[in-house]
Amino acid sequence: MTFQISQRGQQYLKTARTLLGAAQTMTDNVIASQLKALADEYERRAEKASRDDAAKALARAAARAEREAT
Question: Which of 38, 31, 33 is nearest to 16 (CA)?
């Protein structure tokens, strides 16, 4: 399934990329691992936010179409 990444999803992905960049510069492997795990969580949030935003947009469009049909 393909979908557009919402504005909110793009912000989550930007945060994930920042966290991954910080993890790559870490000399402490424990902290680097924690940052990578946090980046993974932000990637999941980006996907969920984009799905949720797409569903809301579809619901708004359906409601608008229904109002215009009456």
Answer: 38
b/e code 22-47 from CB counts within 10 Å (16+ = b)? ebeeeeeeeebeebbebbeebbebbe
**Angle in degrees, CA 33, 35, 41, rounded to 5:** 105
Q: Where are the alpha helices (DSSP H) in 1-70?
A: 7-25, 29-69
The one-letter amino acid at 23: A
Domain parsing of the chain, residue ranges: 7-69
Residues 10-67 have pLDDT tens digits of 999 999 999 999 999 999 999 999 999 999 999 999 999 999 999 999 999 999 998 8
Whose tokens are 């940052």? That residue is 35
